[in-house]
């Protein structure tokens, strides 16, 4: 199957309110251009250097999403162009994104990463840390970032019931913070679901899915 037909098949299966992020990490620009020519405009990368190189080479109407774990000292390299940063898991990182956004005269959209899995290797905030962050004075002072919502990654398991429980938990946290909206919060996005579990994620309330191997083939 070609990248174009893979993409068309997935897009046809998505409800209108769900945004598709094509996860293009490690893939060459030629593969991304096939997806671009098939109409895809949102690409997700997990390394800032690789994303920046692709941004430099590719059409400028592409939205670049940083989906990997972000180190504060690398934020400045993507601040001029990144559309959405998915995995924000601390006030310190938000403050750095805000600082670099201000330098570039931009407002950068972010998702806060919530820890929902039963695996030690995953990053993220728990519910208490999330509430503390959103109600803190320091957070309200950040004028050059905008929180669009939450993201989370389920445990890597075959157990559909466990995955469903984790996705449902993320959606319930998202619903619970709607009252905490401030000027720098829009809270309209729940990013969960990847190639193996995106249909289940959508059933549980996802509005943004990150799909790589089902579009581009294995790594």
Describe the structure.
By secondary structure, the chain is an alpha/beta fold. The protein has helices at 3-13, 29-37, 48-57, 75-78, 91-103, 127-135, 137-140, 160-176, 198-203, 213-216; strands at residues 19-23, 42-45, 63-66, 84-88, 108-113, 145-151, 185-191, 208-211. It has an 8-stranded parallel β-sheet. Helix 4 links the parallel strand 3 (63-66) and strand 4. It is globular. The two termini are 16 Å apart.
Proportion of beta-strand residues:
15-25%
Q: Could you list the spans in which at least 5 consecutive residues all have pLDDT below 50?
A: none
Overall geometry:
globular
User: What string gives the helices and strands in order?
Assistant: HEHEHEHEHEHHEHEHEH
Keywords: Pyridoxal phosphate
Function: Pyridoxal 5'-phosphate (PLP)-binding protein, which is involved in PLP homeostasis.
Protein name: Pyridoxal phosphate homeostasis protein
Organism: Flavobacterium ginsengiterrae
Tell me briefly what this model is:
The protein has 219 residues and is an alpha/beta fold.
Which features would summarize this protein structure in a list?
8 strands; 219 residues; eight-stranded parallel beta sheet; alpha/beta
Fold blueprint:
Layout: H1 3-13, E1 19-23, H2 29-37, E2 42-45, H3 48-57, E3 63-66, H4 75-78, E4 84-88, H5 91-103, E5 108-113, H6 127-135, H7 137-140, E6 145-151, H8 160-176, E7 185-191, H9 198-203, E8 208-211, H10 213-216
Parallel strand pairs: 1-2, 1-8, 2-3, 3-4, 4-5, 5-6, 6-7
Pfam families: Ala_racemase_N (PF01168)
Keywords: Pyridoxal phosphate
Function: Pyridoxal 5'-phosphate (PLP)-binding protein, which is involved in PLP homeostasis.
